[in-house]
């Protein structure tokens, strides 16, 4: 059964795609950008909360439900999603916006702040998988050696996730066992407890959005990102992590905290990688305080 949020969805033409989104409220725009195995439904508690004080948007990104599915074997490059988000903000007159993203969506928001800083007011990033701040995809041997020498604990956590989650997920996908692939990947990012806590409604959202994950794991990998590009982001950033998230995601957030010049960090107790779903009330209050503190603030260096 689809969530009622879909019943109120609008659509917008973005180049060669037709994207679904919901919009409600007035005030400064705040835009929610989902990660893998998700769509606009993941933000329903944030959307309802912030639409009382802001012009709130929740987008289903290209190929996410209820949009047109990705074709079998097609690529799904990250830069296409960045361009989609930029065009969406322009066409809806929503820039500069407060952007909140989870996982892959957080990485897309970060890339938008690099490519189009004038479109971004603030960033709220939940565990962006910025692996390419350390290594390429797939990593070169020399990069791994360098990482083990400079950041041994980070290297171990990345290598462990790559072997136990990404490699095993890819193997299951290649064998055609989609159910196993979903289980391996979801347990890898949410850990066992987070996986066991998934509701039937959330499981449906995961199943609905499996194909873009398959395109990512078997195809494009993580986009390149330069350290200096991150250092130049002037927008205020709130980095949110879950207490129960995998260590490699925590260490990647550590790296962002080191690089971003205007960053604040907040751990959410009892939360997994789906920080905003696990503890929506706490997340909403932290984000509200952050957004209010940075309302009507657009750094001149962003222009």
Element layout with pairings:
Elements: E1 10-14, E2 17-24, E3 29-33, H1 44-50, E4 55-60, H2 78-91, E5 97-102, H3 104-115, E6 120-126, H4 141-150, H5 152-174, H6 178-196, H7 200-208, H8 210-220, H9 227-231, E7 237-242, H10 247-259, E8 263-268, H11 275-278, H12 280-293
Parallel strand pairs: 3-4, 3-5, 5-6, 6-7, 7-8
Antiparallel strand pairs: 1-2, 2-4
Helix pairs in contact: 1-12, 2-3, 4-5, 5-6, 5-10
Features:
Rossmann fold; 47% helix; 303 residues; 16% strand; eight-stranded mixed β-sheet; alpha/beta
Can you tell me about this structure?
- The model is unreliable at 298-303 (pLDDT under 50).
- The protein is 47% helix and 16% strand.
- It has 12 helices and 8 strands.
- It is α/β, with parallel strands linked by helices.
- Helix 10 links the parallel strand 7 and strand 8.
- The longest helix is centred in the middle third of the chain and has 23 residues, at 152-174.
- The termini are far apart.
- It has a domain at 4-134 and 222-302: 3-Layer(aba) Sandwich (Rossmann fold).
């Amino acid at each position: 059964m689809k969530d009622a949020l879909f019943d109120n969805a609008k659509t917008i033409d973005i180049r060669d795609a037709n994207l679904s989104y919901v919009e409600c409220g007035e005030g400064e725009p705040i835009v929610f950008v989902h990660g893998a195995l998700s769509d606009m439904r993941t933000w329903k508690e944030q959307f309802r909360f912030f639409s009382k004080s802001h012009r709130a948007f929740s987008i289903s990104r290209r190929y996410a439900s209820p949009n047109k599915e990705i074709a079998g074997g097609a690529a799904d490059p990250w830069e296409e999603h960045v361009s989609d988000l930029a065009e969406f903000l322009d066409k809806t007159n929503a820039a500069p916006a407060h952007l909140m993203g989870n996982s892959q969506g957080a990485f897309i928001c970060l890339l938008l702040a690099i490519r189009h800083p004038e479109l971004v007011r603030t960033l709220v990033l939940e565990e962006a998988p910025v692996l390419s701040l350390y290594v390429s995809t797939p990593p070169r041997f020399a990069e791994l050696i360098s990482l083990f020498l400079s950041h041994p604990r980070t290297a171990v956590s990345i290598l462990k996730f790559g072997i136990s989650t990404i490699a095993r997920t890819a193997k299951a996908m290649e064998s055609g066992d989609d159910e196993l692939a979903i289980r391996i990947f979801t347990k890898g990012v949410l850990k066992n407890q987070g996986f066991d806590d998934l509701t039937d409604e959330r499981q449906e959202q995961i199943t609905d959005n499996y194909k873009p994950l398959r395109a990512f794991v078997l195809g494009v990998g993580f986009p390149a990102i330069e350290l200096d590009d991150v250092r130049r982001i002037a927008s205020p950033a709130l980095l949110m992590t879950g207490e129960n998230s995998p260590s490699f995601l925590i260490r990647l957030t550590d790296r962002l905290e080191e690089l971003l010049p205007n960053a604040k960090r907040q751990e959410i107790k009892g939360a997994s990688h789906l920080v905003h779903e696990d503890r929506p009330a706490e997340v909403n209050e932290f984000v509200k305080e952050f957004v209010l503190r940075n309302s009507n603030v657009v750094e001149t260096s962003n222009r």
